[in-house]
Amino acid sequence: MRLDVVTIFPEYLEPLNVSLVGKARARGQLDVRIHDLREWAHDKHNTVDDTPYGGGPGMVMKPEPWGEALDEILASGDGEPVIVVPTPSGVPFTQQLAVELSVKPWLVFTPARYEGIDRRVIEEYGDRLDVREVSIGDYVLAGGEAPVLVMVEAVARLLPGVLGNAASHQDDSFAPGAMADLLEGPVYTKPPEWRGRGIPEVLLSGHHGKIARWRRDEAFRRTDRNRPDLIERADPAAFDKHDRAILAALGWSEGDDGRFGRTAEAVEE
Ligand code: ADE
């Protein structure tokens, strides 16, 4: 997979040389190219921003440097990339979107600073390419570079051969499959006792069926505690008899619409 990032802070993307993404680069699984937007600015101060039309606080990134940068990058490769524009006004970045992006051969990220990029740039490329405006969460950062690091890591670990153990992401929270809609439960490793705390007995039993059931129960407990909205949204067709029993014990019941909701008593607690 080829990844291009256009930024005014190339050094902000240094973490892409480290750990999982860095190793994938070194192995040739990822071709990462970081570009300094200011190389496409032409005045002596390398200006890339200007005041917003209509007034208001902050500065807006000028269209010309972005246009020249993107034209040059697009001309340097085969085929068409997906352009990912990080912005708090975008669609939420989810595991599903990470999976979708992970099968694309080429992604171009355009992290902005200031109040964002002149709208015409998004329109210009959106008319002929797949352009995604994406937010990593409901908070505002000073720029899109940290979101690029987040998205690249989420995408890169899904590439074939990047994670050591190919099965490792099947049980991820938010991954499609049997554990979809549930958060991952707790995990343990050696030593068997640490500061007087042991390991749940079932994990030492060697009984795979019981272990799977315990993990699923823990996933329900954690999702109930931290993300009840996921249970409310879940398709109950995915819930078996045991799931329904644990949900009932946690104070959930199936509503007329077939979805699960918290019983009044559970909500009051
Ligand atoms: N730029 C600033 N805040 C952002 C966010 N939450 N997601 C993506 N890009 C951003």
Give your account of this protein's structure:
The protein is built from 9 helices and 9 strands. Helix 3 crosses helix 5 and helix 6 crosses helix 8. The longest helix is centred in the last third of the chain and has 19 residues. The protein has 2 domains: 155 residues, Alpha/beta knot; 90 residues, Trp Operon Repressor, Chain A (Orthogonal Bundle). Strand 1, helix 1 and strand 2 form a beta-alpha-beta unit. The chain is of the alpha/beta class. The site of adenine (ADE) has 11 residues, from strand 5.
Walk across the major sheet and give the strand order: 2-1-6-5-7
Q: What's the CATH H-level superfamily name of the largest domain?
A: SPOUT methyltransferase, trefoil knot domain
- Provide mean pLDDT, rounded: 94
| Tertiary shape | elongated
Number of helices: 9
The CATH topology of the largest domain: Alpha/beta knot
Decide which structural class fits the backbone.
alpha/beta
Number of domains: 2
The molecules bound to the chains, other than polymers, are: adenine
Radius of gyration over C-alpha positions, nearest whole angstrom: 23 Å
Low-confidence stretches: none
CATH class of the largest domain: Alpha Beta
Major sheet details: 5 strands, parallel
Q: Order of helices and strands, N to C? A: EHEEEHEHEHEHHHHEEH
Share of β-strand residues:
15-25%
Tell me the span between the first and last alpha carbons.
Answer: 49 Å
**Percent of residues in helices:** 25-40%
Number of strands: 9
Supply the CATH architecture of the largest domain: 3-Layer(aba) Sandwich
